[in-house]
What does this fold into?
Amino acid sequence: MIPSVLPTYSRAPLSFVKGEGAWLIEADGTRYLDLGAGIAVNVLGHAHPALVKALTDQAQALWHTSNLYQIPQQQALADKLVDATFADTVFFTNSGTEACELAVKMARKYWYDKGQKDRVDIITFSGSFHGRSAAGIAAAGSEKMVKGFGPLLGGFVHVDWADHEALTAAITDHTAAILIEPVQGEGGIRPLPDQCLKGLRDLCDEHGILLILDEVQCGMGRTGKLFAHEWSGITPDIMMVAKGIGGGFPLGAVLATEDAASGMTAGTHGSTYGGNPLGCAVGCAVMDIVSDRAFLAEVNRKAGLLRQKLEGLIASHPDVFESVRGTGMMLGIKCKAPNTEIVAAGYKNHVITVPAADNVIRLLPPLNLSDDDIAEAATRLDAAAASLS
It folds into this structure.
């Protein structure tokens, strides 16, 4: 008999009833150090007082009205994002998947309105992940994502990661945009070098095409800047955001320049829940903290400390671990032992990590975890590795 919850997840035998900072707690009081943060969602950990206050204050006033009316909290969050980024305008969604759908629509509508109706192709890269909608799986194109779900949405051109010649050759008169994650998450924590991101911007400018960045996982302070592309000094035309922007509340957004968004007029897109008062009240609280320069400086300091601990861990267990990669608080450990076994060993030692492609475990902790938490993380990961040695 099929379970009442559709069995599309392979769940760990853990169930949490409470969270405090970087810790998750089971009903019997067992505490787990959370280095996954809900897959890069809980950027301020669990039950952060500013987020709790924002949510409860708003919940006591107004939950939902729909986008038929003005929403002050939505306007406030849009203004914060525009002030802090390249963007001129923002559309709010409930998730990164929905952000992908709009980014694709926006890029294609841009060229349609310019009279170039055949300019619909979007170039994407192997190892990418852009959500599980029709557009998202077609954009990724991997067999794991698309098998059994055809016919697929057309108009996506796939090239191998870091194959510059293939990328250049893929650009035609039908190319509308290039879509890429500055740091691949599901693909195994693969950062795109700054010079490559600059090269992509130059390539788009040379051919007059749009650059779409997917910062759903690597954005909102995760790399030590508010958004990962800032390290390279370039700006996109369109950017997908989600996960950390709500700090645990379902929230996403598409940020765009005025030019890139020019085709999206009244009636071309919409959302029932996107940008509702509850979500945007929490998003404003997240932005106020995460966009602060002093906060981001601390993220970078702690990221350096965490990476140092991980390098030591790898040196101590060369039969289990191979190398560390990533940037900021978006780190991956390339494993020699099966990554799923390491994640499971972590559970036994009450530390949570997240598996990814290329036999990598991801460490995506709350950005405000303490130095003591970092030391404890190293101790528990060391014990997990020792159990496999």
Summary: Residues 50-290 form a domain with the Aspartate Aminotransferase; domain 2 fold (CATH 3.40.640.10). The first helix runs from residue 37 to 40.
